[in-house]
Structure of Phosphoacetylglucosamine mutase:
Amino acid sequence: MAQFEEVSQKSAYGTAGFRTNSKQLDHVMFRMGLLATLRSKKTKATIGVMVTASHNPEEDNGVKLVDTMGEMVTPAWEGYATQLANTEQEGLLTALKDVIDREAISMAQEASVFVSKDTRPSSESLSQAVLDGVHALESHSKGALTLGFNYTLIFDCWFELQKLVSSYKQVPNRTDDQKALLVDGANGIGALKVCEMETYLKKELQLSLFNDGSSGKLNHLCGADYVKVQQKGPIGVEMSAGERCCSCDGDADRIVYYYCDSAGRFHLLDGRQDCHPHQHIPQRTAGLDLQIAVVQTAYANGSSTRYLEDTMKVIVRCTETGVKHLHHAAQEFDIGVYFEANGHGTVLFTRDSNTNDKRENAALLLQNTVNLINQTVGDAISDMLLIEAVLTIRGMTVKQWDAIYTDLPNRQLKVKVADRSVIGTTNAERRTVSPAGLQEAIDSLVNKHRQARSFVRPSGTEDVVRVYAEADTQESADALAHEVSLAVY
Ligand code: 16G
Ligand code: ZN
């Protein structure tokens, strides 16, 4: 075990799989091809392998496994992934046999693996390496695998796009002055899809696409992460006052909205998503008696949590960072809304809205919403259409949406430490359990500020510790984040 711990630090299956410079990933890809094949044999279902590094720079790449229902694989299989990725070549066969034995996998079972990739230049050869891994275990089976998804699994299907478009067309028409939406495609997959959608939705929504991939680099000076971290609009987008704008990330599973006011001040509407579909759903579910909850992470602004609990009066749950954790928690409710402050998220409908219900109108409206939402893991384009639908139905401008509550000023910092794994957390990452004394130090710093909250957690995608602080003023939030960083260091 000690040895395993040691190697796992080299390359661990993190928050969203493996992610690093693309030059270091060939062997990891091959092995994920092997593992996906085993997982498929075990589950007797199709497994997805996604080659992407989301919002990371173009030089990076990554890989994650997508389980049978479109979810992340279980912790045990993440453990196998880490083990396989770090095994020396000569130990590979033994490591594979170990998984086969432990999971009692029948190698005679046919496997089906879907490989998808994003638009990075390295994705072509890296996805081929995944396929090589699949072929190594499954050379006899013809046609069991598919490559060529240029988009995420979700988007690959043309029918899916048509379903989104036709559901959106059911939304009552909005006034002409509210039809324009500026979209930053981050020079990635989202741009391709928006381009396709633009023509189908001309009458209902005037999409203007920027950073469409024709010249700029993926995620460079654009995209959801850039906008959120820099707190400013992406390159190439000229926003007029009050105009709705949004940015997706490199693999189009995150979206953030923003606008500029008449004084030229930039307003980011991060974290508003979870309040947003939510405002819409209770109306639609009137009389349907469904249990609705919103799942957030520790990064959710304190004001949004308060708004949901006190004004919207819904159940709010907090989980660890990472779509897989939120998704899991959301599944416990009839309707589970989950959004991370960074823009990942979706809405899950666990109970069939049509069953045993005579209030047809409400059920029908709900069904329409269901069609507009991609429930697998959430994707930027369907989230964008959902937001557009809700704003239209509620007759809200982006400014009015912004005004539903006021964010507490906050600050996020990254701290580089020798070994980030020494930081252990509990209570959905809101408190630390190690190293000794750190939580006490954070508590005493928080107590010096008003309306303050702060937490630290090791990143699952970068070699850093993340620090979050919020307080009643920006100065106070900045100071607290800085003080906590020093305590971590
Ligand atoms: C990944 C996760 C995202 C999470 C982020 C945290 C997926 C699809 N994406 O991008 O949910 O918010 O990592 O990154 O699971 P961090 O651990 O570096 O803070
Ligand atoms: Zn992403």
User: Anything to note?
Assistant: The pocket of zinc ion (ligand 2) is lined by residues 54-55, 249, 251, 253-254 (CB under 6 Å). Residues 140 and 350 are 38 Å apart (CA to CA). The chain has four domains: 2-150, 157-268, 276-378, 410-488. Residues 1-9, 141-157 have pLDDT under 50 and may be disordered.
